[in-house]
Amino acid sequence: MDKNRGILIDTNLCDLCGACVAVCPEDAIILQERNIEVMQDRCTKCGLCAAVCPLNVPELL
Amino acid sequence: MKKYTFDITIIGAGPAGSMAAKRAAEKGASVLLIEKDKYAGIPVRCAEGVYRDEITRLVDIDDSWICSKIIFSELVSPDGNRVRAAEDASGFILDRKKFDQALAILSVESGADLRTETYASGMKKNVHGEWEVSACTRGEDIKILTKVVIGADGVESRVGRWAGIDTSLKLREIESCCQFTLADLNIDDQTVQFYMSKEFAPGGYAWVFPKSGGLANVGLGILGTYVKDVNPEKSLKNFVKRYFPEGRVISQIAGGVPVLPGLKDMVADGVLLAGDAARQVDPLSGGGITNSMAAGIMAAEHAVRSIEQKDTSKKNLTAYQKEWDRKFGKKMRLSSKLKKVVDDLDEEVFNNLVGKMSLLPQQKRTPFAFFKTLLLNQPKLFLDVAKFIL
Ligand SMILES: Cc1cc2nc3c(=O)[nH]c(=O)nc-3n(C[C@H](O)[C@H](O)[C@H](O)COP(=O)(O)OP(=O)(O)OC[C@H]3O[C@@H](n4cnc5c(N)ncnc54)[C@H](O)[C@@H]3O)c2cc1C
Ligand code: SF4
Ligand code: SF4
């Protein structure tokens, strides 16, 4: 599992508001009509998405 | 894979995108407006307040788009004192579901093609220097060949990044927001309320925007740098418990609001950004509806002009950024400066200020008077801000 360590955004908890997408320096988050996904290969685990989220959804694994 | 060709492709059917599509179509361009959601304007991520003067300049307002008409604004200090401002705050609380859809329909009536449930996933330039936008429409992958792309894709914008513009925000450049729509409130439908409080909304404020019939948008924004200390959702729950215990939550949204004086680059070859995508929200108020509409119109005009001139280069499109800067730049920079002043204010100073304001006759309690009182008491701030006003 080690190489899958990264950021987890649970679509069920997320409101799809896009604040995390706005701060992500790596353009690593895809936000669609009904789901959100982190491209783990781009993510540097900087934690900014977690730091801005109004609902505290993104989790560093 | 199906391919489509349009002069201008606009990504995002919010106020910026719909106004851009309307204007570009009116000017005779072939226009495609795409929106990832099923309906433009849903879900609503907004407190829905606009100044009457600003909105009526941009569109003929239909009464059915308005939830309530605002005459007064009330400022509430950290210690809970209230001061009612002069009656120059007249505005509307919109019904953005209806409003956004109406704007999208206006663009269609002007000749634009609107495709909802269509998500743009990327774009690249072909050998002829045109953009090829990849999108997925109702499960089907398509390509759109286009001379100009207008990125009106909101705070979550990626269009700029695809064109090589770094639109990513620092934590100090974004408000992290949470809002409830509350029912059963006992409030005045003609008054918007602003609460300044480091406890509930550090680096931001809380708002109450009445939608008539005891309904209101009640929310708060916290500057990104403080979210680790104060979580917006929890803080809003506490705020509501303190000030509106009778309120019944009927819906909840999260949101991000850019609060910077503007992007360094809003254009690239064949690309213009407008609205939240270009970070054109007023930093002090967080209001972005009318700015986005104005920017959408402006971007469309420059897009059409560049196509007519057969020169869609960044250099030629820079005139859009210049026009924006000429018309809005100074206000944006001043607003950003004043925001910093307000954010850094001691709660004590704020309490005093609200006290002083309430001594003035109501007609004199304008935002200008507020800042004047503040600046006269803080000479250093005065010098700081003066260079933006003078
Ligand atoms: C909590 C909160 C309260 C606010 N209150 C106010 C207020 O009272 N008054 C005010 O003036 N402003 C307010 N604002 C700001 C205002 O909502 C925005 O400035 C305004 O909506 C910006 O318009 P826009 O057209 O740029 O973007 P949006 O309205 O965000 O529209 C962007 C559209 O693009 C679509 N989109 C995004 N990516 C893609 C893609 N890849 N493919 C296809 N479609 C895509 C989205 O689905 C969306 O419909 C508030 C914001 C928040 C978060
Ligand atoms: S941790 Fe950083 S790089 Fe990774 S998704 Fe979040 S903001 Fe982007
Ligand atoms: S900031 Fe939070 S709620 Fe908003 S889209 Fe990102 S994870 Fe979801």
Structural summary, described in words:
The complex is a heterodimer of chains A (61) and B (390). Chain A is α+β, with helices and mostly antiparallel strands. Chain A has a single domain, classed as Alpha-Beta Plaits, CATH 3.30.70. Chain A contains two helices and four strands. A two-stranded antiparallel sheet of chain A has the order 1-4. A two-stranded antiparallel ribbon of chain A has the order 2-3. The longest helix of chain A is centred in the middle third of the chain and has 5 residues, at 19-23. Chain A is globular. The N and C termini of chain A lie close together (11 Å). The mean pLDDT of chain A is 92. With 390 residues, chain B is α/β, with parallel strands linked by helices. Chain B folds into three domains: 2-45 and 97-169 and 261-335, FAD/NAD(P)-binding domain, CATH 3.50.50; 68-92 and 171-258, D-Amino Acid Oxidase, subunit A, domain 2 (D-Amino Acid Oxidase, Chain A, domain 2); 339-389, no CATH class. Chain B has ten helices and 18 strands. Chain B has helices spanning 15-26, 52-58, 96-109, 159-162, 232-243, 289-308, 314-344, 347-359, 367-376, 379-389, and strands at 2-11, 31-34, 49-51, 66-70, 72-76, 82-84, 91-94, 113-115, 118-125, 131-137, 140-151, 174-183, 191-195, 206-212, 215-223, 248-258, 267-268, 271-273. In chain B, strands 1, 2, 8, 9, 10, 11, 17 and 18 form an eight-stranded mixed beta sheet that branches. A seven-stranded mixed beta sheet of chain B has the order 6-5-13-14-15-12-16. A three-stranded antiparallel beta sheet of chain B has the order 3-7-4. The longest helix of chain B has 31 residues, at 314-344. The termini of chain B are far apart. In chain B, 49% of the residues are buried. The interface between A and B is medium-sized, with 22 and 35 residues. The structure holds flavin-adenine dinucleotide and iron/sulfur cluster (2 copies). Flavin-adenine dinucleotide binds next to helix 1, strand 3, strand 9, strand 12 and strand 16 of chain B.
